[in-house]
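Assess this:
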Amino acid sequence: MATLSAFSSPPWPDPNPNPNPDPTFVSQTDQSYPLDSETESSMSHQPIEFHDHDQNPNPNVQKPLQTTPSDPGTLLHLSFNQDHGCFAVGTDHGFRIFNCDPFREIFRRHFADGGISAVEMLFRCNILALVGGGPHPQYPPNKVMIWDDHQGRCIGELSFRSEVRSVRLRRDRIVVVLEQKVYVYNFADLKLLHQIETIANPKGLCAVSQSAASLVLVCPGLQKGQVRVEHYASKRTKFIMAHDSRIACFALTPDGQLLATASSKGTLVRIFNTVDGTLLQEVRRGADRAEIYSLAFSSTAQWLAVSSDKGTVHIFNLKLNTGLPGNDKSRYASDSDLAVTQSSSSLSFIRGVLPKYFSSEWSVAQFRLPEGSHYIVAFGHQKNTVVILGVDGSFYRCQFDPANRGEMTQLEHHNFLKPEEAF
């Protein structure tokens, strides 16, 4: 019943420059249900090499044609890489990769008449996952193409019976999300390791931890408002009923221990311990319904950023020094007590008397954007900074003051869709 085709070829090099394999990853024999014939895969006979784009430019690959100044292309995709140091843009003419701090275009690849609806980076290396899209897709929308930018071509592909909704990469895994399925592949040889059935997932919601020590995957469950957490190292599955309404957005910490979720109501964001499903904290974005576009943890899990269709980015303080395993308490404890109690202390005296709305934990900082555009957010590499990207081409870098709260300070603004000479 299960079929998976792959050409016989030498194994790919491990994309992890400091290999730390996960020997306890669940194998096909450990699955609770058989694999089906939804997928096929093929890969090139040539091994691939991994290079940092900033450190190892390849002078032998001819620079592709650049987008003409009069036509920057229609944006089809926008996403950060795994450490939020770069972001990728897919258009109906190809794709571009940008550095966040300092802001600059790293490279662009122009396809004469081919759209890219998904670009998933693997940190800063030359390997990317591409999915075609737009009016004239460069590749079939039901295929994931493995692009080697060092060679300037695709070196492998994964094919499906339905359109690919999203792709997630780790150094050792490729995760492909369809409307109601999630597939996990081994990066080294494109072998299918696991498949998961989900509720309808048109957004392709999926999050994967990036720690080499453990692989944690989160996707929608089979019920409305439910998330499924796969802990592959311990071979455990945890279902969390996070909301009454359908899941609209979620985010994982890099080690996969903490999960933030938002529902289609968009008023509350909840933070869970992924190991036991414990609700650790609940914060309020606002009182009226909103569509949450993105959630992001800071690198130390001290802060959580939320963007929505209300044109405001909120920063919340996370008090997560309880409910976690003993060795992790100090790691997630706040390094500043200035904002720990401010978000709710002013209303604490009426807690339990008035409705929950009045005792909710509110954001410590906000940044207001023009309404009507879709924005995603991530934390910058400098202390107390965030990077905000808009589908209108806007790039903002802002700084927040946890002691004084209030509005963030805008540090810079650019339009990444504005035609400029590529770096």
The first strand starts at residue 39 and ends at 43.
